[in-house]
UniProtKB/TrEMBL annotation:
One of its GO terms (biological process) is modified amino acid biosynthetic process. This is Putative glutamate--cysteine ligase 2. It comes from Corynebacterium occultum. One of its GO terms (molecular function) is ATP binding. It catalyses: L-cysteine + L-glutamate + ATP = gamma-L-glutamyl-L-cysteine + ADP + phosphate + H(+). The gene is ybdK3.
Amino acid sequence: MAAIEFKRSPRPTLGVEWEIALLDPETRDLVPRAGDVVDIVHRDHPEIHLEREFLQNTVELVTGICDTVPQAVVDLDNSLQAVVAAADELGLEVWASGSHPFSDFRTQPVSVKGSYAEIIARTQYWGSQMLIWGIHVHVGISHEDRVWPIINALSTNYPHLLALTASSPGWDGIDTGYASNRTMLYQQLPTAGLPYQFQSWQEWLDYMHDQDRSGVINHTGSMHFDIRPASKWGTIEVRISDATSNLRELSAVVALTHCLVVHYDRMIDRGEQLPTLQPWHISENKWRAARYGLEAQIIVNRDTDERWVTEELAEMVTDLAELAEELGCAAELALVQEILERGAGYHRQRRIFQKTGSWIPAVDQTCRELKEMRPLE
């Protein structure tokens, strides 16, 4: 295995990846036309960065290296408008959420890529079910020795980042009772889920060496932890959140993520101890946020004290407000409070399903939210 070199970032730069899907406007089912959409966008806008994803129905919007959340949002908006125009040309709808509420995974082909075929060959039934979409936030880190202390601290914020974005209550035509069924599905893959609480960069290197020798990385190309180092870019990549249906909610969680990473980085500068929780508490909090979303009561310290996640989030917005001003994302961080007052994506989808008995109106509204760049209802 080649040595893993962390490409240090001199400042806390920001990059965002947003996975969105393509739908048939008549059936509202997923359609495997991502390659056609990407080709049209590259024809008309060669400067826009899009990626083909695991499924042929998915397009990933990828920002450049940004300094602020507003800069990243403008980048994503430009890409989204180009994708919407290409989809319109093909007679398709564009849609984003944590998972699709009724599409049959057996009808959705995987993209043509060796590592994707390897994943399906290895994981079989569970790997085939990944009709799920998320948001990945990269934040630049100045030195590899800071990476795992910050990841371990961010793990204590797992339920906060997930509850804000939870948007996958439906699966196979039913209401699962979960706010984020995506979270439960994704952790079935052998290389996905919570990261281990490594205490040093060397422990991470030793772990990756073991994964290479045992053949794990040969099957997958990489580890797919919910939070992981992205050594090639010199970042920590936070992959907790469901894909939001709109840029307004996306900007809130990106701002919170950016602020939290910089906050913990500066705690290291000040010689302060970063927060941690027992691994079993981290795991329990993940489940509670996936199950209950913004209604979750979570474990907040090593003494097993509990608070409502909404109370925690409201306090975070206040505590991080000054830092958000400095980072240029005060307006976006303030949108967290708006989500707390209005509810998250799973609330809107579930209300429509309960009112109509059908997921189709919920899918239709989610499509409208993407185009109007804000939650509706």
